[in-house]
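Hi team,

Filling in the usual template for the complex we talked about on Friday. All components are listed, including any nucleic acid strands or ligand strings, so the model treats them as one assembly.

SUBMITTER: L.P.
PURPOSE: interface mapping
COMPONENTS: two
RESIDUES: 506
SEQUENCES:
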Amino acid sequence: MTLSRQELEQKICVGLKNAIGKPIPDISEDKKLVEDLGLDSFAALELIYELEDTLGIKIPDEDAKKFVFVKDLLDYVSGKMELNRGGQNVD
Amino acid sequence: MMKNRRVVVSGLGVLAPNGIGVKEFWQANVSGQSGIKRLTRFDTDQFQTKIAGQIDHFDPLDFMDESLAQKEDRFTQFALAAATLALQDSQIKLDQQDSYRLGVVLGSGLGGMFFYEKQILLMQQYGQVKTHPASIPRIMPNAPASQMAITFQCKGPNLTISTACASGNHAIGQALTMIKHHQADIILAGGTEAPLVFYNFAGFDAMRVMSRQNEDYQHACRPFDKNRDGFVMGEGAAILVLEEREHALHRGAKIYAEILGYGTSSGAGHMVLPVLNGEDAAWAMRLALENAEIRAEDIDYINAHGTSTQANDKAETQAIKSVFGKRAYQVPISATKSMIGHTLGAAGAIEAVVCCLAIENNIIPPTINYQQADAECDLDYVSGQARQQPVDCVLSNSFGFGNNNVTLIFGRDKP
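RESULT (copied from the run log):
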C-alpha cells in the first residue's frame, strides 16, 4: 500500500474519531492525543487496532505508550509504512 | 421505607476456584488460599495472559443426572449446583412451600459461552445444518434461572440481570426489593459465570485488562498493591436463599444475616473505565447506607470490588474515602478476588457469601498478595492474614463494565 503523508493523516483522523466515538473538529499534528483530543487508554487500544488492521502494520504496546502528539503517531506510522515498502521513497 | 418486611439469608451455596461448598470455600478464604493457576482449558500461546481461576474439581454429575448435565452449558450447571447446595443448607422443604411464592433472580454477564463457541465453530466448518436446535435455550443468559425454576419448581418471579461484573450484587438487590414488595417470600438469588472459553478470553486479552504475571501466577491478583497489573479471570457461582424474615423464623431457619441495604448508580462515563474520582461508586454506597438506615461508622468490614486493576482499585479507594471520611482509614477492607480472581457476573454473589460468613464467624478474610503499598490506595486492606473481630455489619461493592455500580449491606440478624 502506498499512501502520502496527507493520506496517512486522514487515516489517523478517521481512526481517532472512531476510537473516541464522537466527531472531533480540529485534529492537527500539534494536538496532544490525551490532553487535547481526549484519547483515553481504552480508546487508544481501539485506535491501534484500527490502524494495524487498515494499514497492515504492527504497533507494539511499548511503542504506542510513547505517542504524545498526533505528529508522533503520524511519524511512526509513516516510518512503518516505509519499512514495509522496503525503504522506497515516499511522495 | 419498606419497613414491613425484612429479608434474611437462610442458605448459602457456592462454587469458586478455591472451594466448592461453604465449608471448603470458607476454609480456603480464611487461610488465604489462592485458586489461581496456569490456564489449562485451551492453548494460551496467542494470549498475553495465561492464568485464570479455574474450578477443576467440579463434576456436574455430583448435582444432577447426566441427561440434564449434557443439555446445559457450564454456567447453568454451576447455577444448579450452587442452588442445590443452598437449598440443602437452608433445609427448606420445597414441597411444603407455595411454589408461586418462590422465585429466582440471577446475575450473569455473558451467557452460555461454551456452547456458543462450539456452535460458531461447527457452523464455520459445516454450515447451518450442524446448528443444534437447542442452541438458543442453552446460550441465552436466562438459561440458568429458567432451569432452576424448572428443577426446583419456582413459579414466582424469574429474572436475569446482566450488568457485567455488577450482575451478582444487582440480582441480590433486586431479590431483596421483590421480597419487600410482597412479590415472593423466598428467592434464590445469586450469580453464575463460566467465561473460560477461547473466544471470550481473547476479547478480554485484547482489552489488556488482565494480569500478565504468568510465571508468578500465585501472586498475580494483587488488589490495591502498587504493582497490580490487571485482574485474573475466574469462573464460579453462588446462590443465596433470601427469605422474608418472619417466614424464616416461623420454620426455625438458621439465619446467616439480614440484607439491610441496596444502592445502585451509573457512572454514565465510559463503557470500560471507571470514573476515576469514584463519585458514582460513592453515590451507590451512600444510597445503600441510607436505605439500610445506618451510618458509615456502623460498618465493621468492607468487601471491596478490588479487582487488581490500577483504575478500579484507585477509584474504589477514593469512593470509600469520600463516604467514610476519616473512618476510611480504620474500617478493614478486603478483596475476595485476590484469591479467586474475577468471576464477572458471579463475583457479587460469591462475595455476598463471604459477607454472610464473616458475620457468622466474626472473621474477616484477608486480601492476599498485598506486598507493596500504593500512595493512592492507603487504607487497611487486611493484608495476608484473616482477622478475628466482631463483624455485625458489612458493606459489599461491585462495579461493572458500563459504569454499573452496586452496593449491598449485610447485618447480623437482630430482633
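MY TAKE: Chain B touches chain A through seven residues (CB under 8 Å). Chain B has two domains: 7-250, 262-405.

Thanks, L.
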